[in-house]
Structures are given as C-alpha cells and as structure tokens.
C-alpha cells in the first residue's frame, strides 16, 4: 500500500491540530540566532509545503524535497497561490541530490523516523552534511521510543470529519523499534457515497545516543537536543525531540564531507 497517496489530498485537514506556525517560528529563531537570516534553505520531507511556505514568507529561498508526487502536487498548489519561488524536487531523501550547498536543512513532523535502517539514516545525515555550507545548521525532529511504545503503540485512533474519516491502527514492534501505521481513509465521492482507501506507514524509533553517534560520524557536531520545539533539554521521556546539529567539516571516520561514498543498498545482493 502506498504511503501518502490519496491521504495527501486530505492531509492538511487531518493535521490541523499541529501548530506548524509555532514550529516554524522556533526554526526561524534558531536560524537567526546562528546568523542565518536569509539564503537557501532545504526542507527534507516537505510534504504539502506548509512549513516550506512559512519559511519562504520569512525571506528564505526554499527548496523542498519529498518522494510523494501527491504531496508535492498539494505543495505546488500552495506555491501557485502564494507566488513564492520555491523549488520542489521529487526525490527520496535517502539519496537526494542538489546542485550546490545550502545554509540550512530542516525536517519536521518525524520525517526522519521514516528512515528505518540505521545505516540509511547515517547516510542521510552524511548527505545533509555534504550539502551544508560551512557551519550550516541541520534542524530536525524525531518521535521517541517512549512515544511509539507507551503512547501510541498498539492503539487505534479514529476521527470523523465532514471531509472524510479515518481509522489509524498502530502496531509497535519493540524488538526492532518499528511502529506500523495501518491507515484506512473514508473519503466522500460526488455521488454521496464514501470510498475506502488504505495506506501503510512504517517508522523507526532511535535513541538519543544512536542519533548522536550518527551525527558525529556524518561530520556534524551536535548543538542541542530539546523537548520538541522548546528550550527544555530533551531526554528519552519526551514524545518528540528537536535536534540541532552544525556542519563541522570532514568526518575523519568516514570521509563523507565533499566525497559521498558509494554504498550497498539493502535491496542489492
């Protein structure tokens, strides 16, 4: 089942409880404090472009990357309405490519949790480091083991709206720290009936220590870990964490910076 297929068209409706404005203000504050007041900024897993648009409103030259055509179609509709000169790229963030470097990379709404193999996440971090300007910032959030295991794991969440309904079933695999979302959407048709659509989403939980090690191996330095979008130090008891890392030159261990090595993918023999 494809993730973010038909769901893309109603994603913003069902996500209206997320305070993207506060998240974006937090990101802008962190960027400005580090002297990044304008210039190129990349959003990985940009989805329907809500945060991308807000950062463009703040004066940043935005690039958005997502691997869902349907989500990017929604983002491009917003771009047409706002008139912002945002570059959207249909790419997998696990192997993205840019023409040059950017001042900052951001990723929100647990996009990094969709990278379910540790070596793949380490590679994403290496790519980020490669495309950051010297001293550039990487700001991203992640759901925690605590959230998947203790808060939403093995729970069913349902919601009924005028524009559609959903049933969201969670199943947490503690051995592999994987959370599977089985999502059933019921969307209205023109004839007054409802069409059922099903999607499956898989996310992986990583410990703070695992993420710290990956950041260092990628050649970045960890600036801070916060309880998401606050200035309270984060720990494993938080449900979501915000990580701030800085480009720190070449990784002595992996020689990633400026020279991304070829790697074997899990699908290869």
Structural account:
Strand 2, helix 4 (about 70-80) and strand 3 (about 85-90) form a beta-alpha-beta unit. This protein has helices at about 10-15, 20-35, 50-55, 70-80, 120-130, 145-150, 210-215; strands at about 40-45, 60-65, 85-90, 100-105, 130-145, 155-160, 165-175, 180-190, 195-205, 220-225, 240-245. Helix 2 crosses helix 3 and helix 5 packs across helix 7. The two termini are about 25 Å apart. The protein has a 7-stranded mixed sheet with strand order 3-2-1-4-5-11-10, with helices on both faces. A 4-stranded antiparallel sheet has the order 6-7-8-9, with helices on one face. Helices cover about 25% and strands about 35% of the residues. By secondary structure, the protein is of the alpha/beta class. The protein folds into 2 domains: about 10-145 and about 205-245, Vaccinia Virus protein VP39 (Rossmann fold, 3-Layer(aba) Sandwich), CATH 3.40.50; about 150-205, N-terminal domain of TfIIb (Single Sheet), CATH 2.20.25.
């Amino acid at each position: 089942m494809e993730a973010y297929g038909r769901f893309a068209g109603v994603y913003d409706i069902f996500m209206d409880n997320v305070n993207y404005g506060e998240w974006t203000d937090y990101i802008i504050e962190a960027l400005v404090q580090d002297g990044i007041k304008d210039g190129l900024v990349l959003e990985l897993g940009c989805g329907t472009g809500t945060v991308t648009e807000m950062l463009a409103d703040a004066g940043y030259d935005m690039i958005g990357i997502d691997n869902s055509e349907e989500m990017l179609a929604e983002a491009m509709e917003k771009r047409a309405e706002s008139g912002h000169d945002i570059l959207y790229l249909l790419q997998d963030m696990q192997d993205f490519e840019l023409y040059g470097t950017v001042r900052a990379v951001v990723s929100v709404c647990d996009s990094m949790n969709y990278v379910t193999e540790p070596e793949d996440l380490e590679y994403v971090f290496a790519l980020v480091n490669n495309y950051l300007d010297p001293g550039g910032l990487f700001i991203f959030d992640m759901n925690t083991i605590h959230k998947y295991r203790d808060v939403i794991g093995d729970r069913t969440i349902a919601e009924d709206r005028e524009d559609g309904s959903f049933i969201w079933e969670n199943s947490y695999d503690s051995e592999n720290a994987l959370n599977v979302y089985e999502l059933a959407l019921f969307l209205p048709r023109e004839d007054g009936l409802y069409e059922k659509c099903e999607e499956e989403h898989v996310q992986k939980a990583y410990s703070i220590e695992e993420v710290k090690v990956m950041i260092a191996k990628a050649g970045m330095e960890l600036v801070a870990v916060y309880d998401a979008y606050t200035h309270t130090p984060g720990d494993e008891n938080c449900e979501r964490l915000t990580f701030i890392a800085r480009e720190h030159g070449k990784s002595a261990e992996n020689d990633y910076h400026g020279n991304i090595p070829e790697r074997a993918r899990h699908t290869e023999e």
